[in-house]
């Protein structure tokens, strides 16, 4: 999506797919562009939620902090993806932290003005409801994975999902540091490295830097479902 003008960019965002030009113009009238340097915290857990964000460029991580300060990454967003959308419907506090993983730019839609738009034209809210439903399913799956699955299962499932989202079959490239991936999977970097090494030794994957080739998908699928143990 990089390089598009703002009008075309908004048209391509799944959240706003299907809106007619007059509706897009109404959104353009209220949007604010906000830039963030790498490491900049966009909002904090407990901070009053004042609007909805859509990432324009860069990457943003959403995470929670335990009482001991341990970070658990919940999701990593790229261009075109909304975050902080709970604010639009509830107007309460943000339930997690958001931080720029690199130099990023976000489109910010103030809650009050956005709610006025969808109140006048409820059809504008339909995609948002679908997006919220999709996010609910994602976080339900995340809770299940973190509470019921072992780390090798989580990693195998993550690699398979990442592979399905790429054009180059059987090869995935990690676009986040291994420390961040460990946090996303609910583990520590040392454990993640050990499991990647075991998967390599047993011939399931081949690791070259951030590029991972899935050699034995069938075994990875069995591991992800708990049918096969990583020895």
Your description of this structure?
There is one protein chain. The chain is an alpha+beta fold and 231 residues long. The protein has 2 domains: 6-131, Jelly Rolls (Sandwich); 149-224, Orthogonal Bundle (Arc Repressor Mutant, subunit A), CATH 1.10.10.10. 42% of the residues lie in helices and 23% in strands. It contains 9 helices and 11 strands. The chain has helices spanning 6-12, 21-30, 86-90, 111-120, 126-148, 151-164, 178-184, 189-201, 217-224; strands at 32-36, 41-43, 51-57, 60-65, 71-77, 82-83, 97-100, 104-110, 171-173, 205-208, 211-214. The chain has a 4-stranded antiparallel sheet. Strands 2-7-4-5 form a 4-stranded antiparallel sheet. Strands 9-11-10 form a 3-stranded antiparallel sheet. A hairpin with a 2-residue loop joins strand 10 (205-208) and strand 11 (211-214). Helix 6 packs across helix 9 and helix 7 (178-184) packs across helix 8 (189-201). It is elongated. The mean pLDDT is 84.
* Helix residue percentage: 40-55%
CATH topology of the largest domain: Jelly Rolls
Run of helices and strands: HHEEEEEEHEEHHHEHHEEH
Do you know the CATH architecture of the largest domain? Sandwich
Number of strands: 11
Any idea how many domains?
Answer: 2
What structural category characterises the helix and strand content? alpha+beta
- Overall, the morphology is elongated
Distance between the termini: 42 Å
Q: What do we call the CATH homologous superfamily of the largest domain?
A: Jelly Rolls
Order of strands, main sheet, comes to: 1-8-3-6
- In the predicted model, the low-confidence regions spanning at least 5 consecutive residues are none
Helical segment count: 9
The biggest beta sheet reads: 4 strands, antiparallel
What is the CATH level 1 assignment of the largest domain? Mainly Beta
Strand fraction = 15-25%
Overall residue-averaged pLDDT value: 84
